[in-house]
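USER:
Before I trust my own judgement here, I would like a peer's view. Write it directly below this note and I will take it from there.

ASSISTANT:
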Amino acid sequence: MNHYEQEINQLMLEIFNRILVTEEKALSRGEFKDLSVAEMHTLEGIGLYNSRTMSETAAILEITTGTLTVAVDRLVRKGYVARNRDASDRRVVRVCLTRKGKLAYRMHNKFHTLLVDRITEPLSTEQRDVLLTTLKGIAGFVGEQYRRYTEYPEKQEKRTGQPHETRTTRLEGTL
């Protein structure tokens, strides 16, 4: 890596890590210190207004329903989430935020809003457009890599028409 690439890499790592740590610290010092960042993101996946099925929520969060069940169990015990059977199909379980869950959701959303405002406020319209275009490009690339390394082998083979590669083989190639 040349100096420019090293600097970009260092800045991206620093930003990513500091956002995560700041989010953790803000949660641990606030009214909702009993929530982890992962649990807060589960609340975001459930959503503020409508109840969702466990399957819908798991798909939004890109986790298995089993993993979501464990998280929802904890959030129900803590009073942030309510779990109910669907009125038209008793086999379907729906989850929604309680009043406490909605308050936590709103406070966390305020954290993200403040973060975005502080980053974008001093920028001109042109600079905002460049930032947005750049972030979309980064998000697209990272999303491709995420899918590449998290797809089930069968899905990958169906999509590409080629046999599943091992993780080691894929890592040897270029990202």
User: Anything to note?
Assistant: The beta strands are 52-53, 81-85, 93-97.
